[in-house]
Amino acid sequence: MSNPFSLKGKSIMVTGASSGIGRSIAIECSHMGADIIMVARNQSRLEETLSMMGEGNHVMILTHLEIEEELDNLVENITSLDGVVHCAGIAPHHPFKFVSRSKFEETFAVNFFAPALLSQKLVKKKKMSKPSSIVFISSISGNCIAASASTAYCSSKAAIGGLVKSMAVDLASQGIRVNSISPGAIRTAIFDSGQFSEEDIKAEEQRYLLKRLGKPEDIAYAAIYLLSDASSWTTGSNIVVDGGYTVL
Amino acid sequence: MDINCFIEAFADLFEETEADAFSPETHFRDLAEWSSLIALSVMSMIDDEYDVQLNASELRQANTIQELFEIVSSKKS
Fold first, then answer.
1. Which of A98, A148, A195 sits opposite B44 (nearest CB)?
2. pTM, full prediction
3. Most buried residue, A177, A200, B57, B71, by CB count within 10 Å?
């Protein structure tokens, strides 16, 4: 029996594949049969991701996604894609009183302009197959809730919410589906960097209906759905994967 | 670095606590108005005013304003 969630034979680009959610998406998609084009800045960590992946024709590309010329080169080197997952992102904490044009711009460069313009260039240069799927890793922050000291981050993720819906409208006739995933807090390396104490993390877990933080795989499985033929009638949507945080 | 300027910038992050509540010996975490948002504001202020990037665990090492001032001074030199 064929598996509607299979990614066999699909060529999928994953940005931010050197850590966290991006790394998990690259790994899990490879286990579902996809050939992965991994994009990130850090070669050694990308190689670590590669060593954890299933078989396939995988490629690593080192790129600074916030630099326009590097985006052009990246797109030039792509033949054809069945899917893209935009994972690269930053989550700086600036209380609103301390935010500035440059801090907004720094956040938007990575979280909004890079994925928006990479998508635009891939579409314009006809690198997206018909059908194909574009997935943005957004956040419940900015779309459903807001955290403190996160105005730049929340604004950039809210902008992604608008972008996804509007791209879905513009690209439907070309067979390109566009969706996003809004995760709650995922336990990635950021949590183990000393920013948060073990007590902070325990307290945070209690705020989730399912009493734990998310794992990167929780998001990867949602991405597999959006990249596979199982979601061929899903576009312009946002899947909230948050352990029940926003229903409380 | 001048501790009086540091205390002034520190006190400025508070809305309700009066300026005279702040001295080098103040245990800032015991102030009723202290919160995680003010903690982040302290880190932003130190970054803006002194060009020093403090993480949360470094901030946790300080109990008084004097101790915090010394951590910032040592990172600046």
1. A98
2. 0.92
3. A177
